[in-house]
Automatic annotation (TrEMBL):
The chain crosses the membrane at residues 12-34, 88-108, 120-139, 151-176, 202-225, 268-288, 308-327, 427-448, 483-505. It comes from Actinoplanes sandaracinus. It is found in: Cell membrane. It is a multi-pass membrane protein. It holds the Pfam family TrkH. This is Potassium transporter TrkG. The keyword Methyltransferase does not apply. The lineage of its organism: Bacteria, Bacillati, Actinomycetota, Actinomycetes, Micromonosporales. The keyword Hydrolase does not apply.
Length: 522
């Protein structure tokens, strides 16, 4: 067997084991055995290959019996119980575990082309970027990492986009056919499910949508790489799958050193990737609702209406502004034909939806284009999906609050619905905390590096919003800068999730009110 394919198969086997280990670890943490021995689920007894499934089932039952017999020390049990009572903590701990394990796998000598092993910061940065579906890299993905390392990165992207708690829930459903309440609460916090009773349908729906979109895009890209660029079918299939998974999960990792710049005028490469990015960035709650009521927009929930409207507005506005700003820039769009300029402008406007690919050299764009991208990246995509940023719903809610204040209205209304005061406070809190974090990190990097404000602000916003676009300074910010970016990627991926869940759970009624006094505003 060719050594490259051997590395790919080894990486695939490793990441499958990683999937199961992370999910089982989460289930063990919340003290919920994965199996229910008395009755085998329906998938075991179906005709066709039943013997193999029964064997797998027996192994799962034995593993579950072993888990039930595990008795951890009392301090560990108490700590696990405290963590399990807070869904946001479960999500953070699960992602942290995935980052640590991915870091360890990328430190292996087999993960690099040279066989010498990656540096500790390089491996940690790459693992965090992959799990947090960001796309910032210190070393070129296709040139530095081996086939084994690339598959590990691809698996980390899929784990990060799919979600740790969602993965654990899927394993629980496959093995036991049921979910414990604590696992449902953790998955609800991660996927923004409206009700605990919907978790089972959500988990299976996430799996179906992810596999369907990734498969369709991978097929189109595979055909194009093979037919249009002379790649062998095996190599084309690998390229197609890698870029499809990376695009749908809004990760931005690519196997070409110039990202998509060599395909700037190819709609059969750029448009399928853009489609995957937009679909993944809408969020799974919106995708589920569109699947049920695509042709009846009047029946959409307020969340879906806001997400769809803001997505269309930001994509259209971004396309228009970026294309206008770069139209005559010979280093970006100015050297292209009319149709290619429109395609490149659209692709560039889609990428701040937290995808991270680029079809033009961002280091050569005008300052106004960088600022437009900063705003689009900070807003991000939809809630409960693979996108980052403060989310389009948060941004829209702040707009509705401002509009109500301008009108002098005592309550906030949006599209025929009244917004609860608690939702308004959550949106304001998340937005202001995010602004403060981006500003503090920008100041720190300006003090640590020789780069300009535009470059540093772009890099920081890209890391916080888990976008992955860069002006080319990622590898040059130094160890301290890399640590700051690692923290930003992790907080940016989990901050809005955990902050939203924590704020919702901490809401309580005061037993008394203090005397009212007004301050001067403005």
């Amino acid at each position: 067997m060719d050594s490259t394919w051997g590395q790919l198969l080894l990486g695939l086997a490793t990441i499958v084991g990683f999937f199961a280990a992370v999910a089982a670890g989460v289930a063990l943490l919340i003290w919920a055995p994965l199996v229910s021995p008395p009755k085998a689920p329906r998938w075991v007894t179906r005709q066709g290959g039943a013997a193999l499934r029964r064997g797998v089932w027996r192994l799962a039952v034995q593993a579950g019996e072993h888990l039930r017999g595990v008795r951890l020390p009392a301090p560990v049990t108490r700590w696990a119980g405290q963590v399990a009572r807070h869904p946001a903590r479960l999500v953070v701990l699960g992602f942290a575990a995935a980052v640590v394990v991915g870091w360890g796998l990328l430190l292996l000598p087999a993960a690099t082309e040279t066989g010498r092993g990656a540096g500790a910061i390089t491996a940690l940065f790459t693992a965090t970027s992959a799990v947090c579906v960001t796309g910032l890299v210190i070393e070129d993905t296709g040139g530095y990492w081996s086939g084994f390392g690339e598959v590990i990165i691809l698996g980390l992207i899929q784990i990060g986009g799919f979600g740790i708690m969602t993965l654990a829930s899927l394993l629980g459903l496959l093995v036991a056919g049921r979910l414990r309440m604590r696992l449902q609460l953790g998955t609800q916090a991660e996927t923004k499910t409206m009700g605990v009773g919907d978790v089972r349908q959500v988990v299976l729906g996430v799996l179906r949508i992810s596999l369907l979109v990734e498969a369709v895009v991978a097929v189109v890209l595979t055909w194009r790489f093979a037919d249009g660029y002379g790649e062998s079918w095996g190599r084309a299939a690998y390229l197609g799958l890698f870029h499809a998974v990376s695009a749908f999960n809004n990760a931005g990792f690519g196997l070409y050193a110039d990202s998509l710049m060599r395909f700037v005028g190819d709609p059969l490469i750029c448009l399928p990737i853009c489609a995957a990015i937009v679909i993944g960035g809408l969020g799974f709650p919106v995708l589920f609702e569109l699947r049920r009521a695509l042709r009846t927009p009047q029946r959409w929930s307020l969340h879906t209406k806001i997400t769809m409207g803001m997505t269309g507005l930001l994509l259209g506005g971004g396309w228009l502004l970026i294309t206008w700003a770069e139209w005559a820039n010979t280093a970006t769009l100015g050297r292209l034909g009319f149709a290619d300029r429109l395609l490149a402008g659209f692709t560039t406007a889609v990428m701040p939806r937290t995808a991270g690919f680029n079809s033009v050299d961002l280091a050569q764009t005008h300052d106004v284009t960088l600022l437009i991208n900063d705003v689009l990246m900070f807003i991000g995509g939809g809630s409960g999906g693979t996108a980052g940023g403060i989310k389009v719903t948060t941004f829209a809610l702040l707009g509705f609050v401002i509009l109500a204040e301008i009108r002098g209205e005592p309550s906030v209304h949006a599209l025929g619905r009244r917004l609860p005061a608690g939702i308004q406070r959550q949106a304001l809190t998340i937005a202001l905390l995010s602004v403060g974090l981006v500003m503090a990190s920008t100041l720190a990097l300006l003090a640590l590096t020789p780069f300009t404000l535009n470059q540093v602000l772009f890099e920081v916003t890209s890391a916080f919003a888990t976008v992955g676009m860069t002006t080319g300074i990622t590898a040059q910010v130094g160890t301290a800068g890399h640590v700051i970016l690692i923290a930003l990627m992790f907080i940016g991926r989990l901050g809005p999730i955990t902050a939203g869940a924590a704020l919702a759970l901490r809401e309580r009624t005061r037993r008394y009110e203090l005397p009212e006094e007004r301050t001067i505003v403005g």
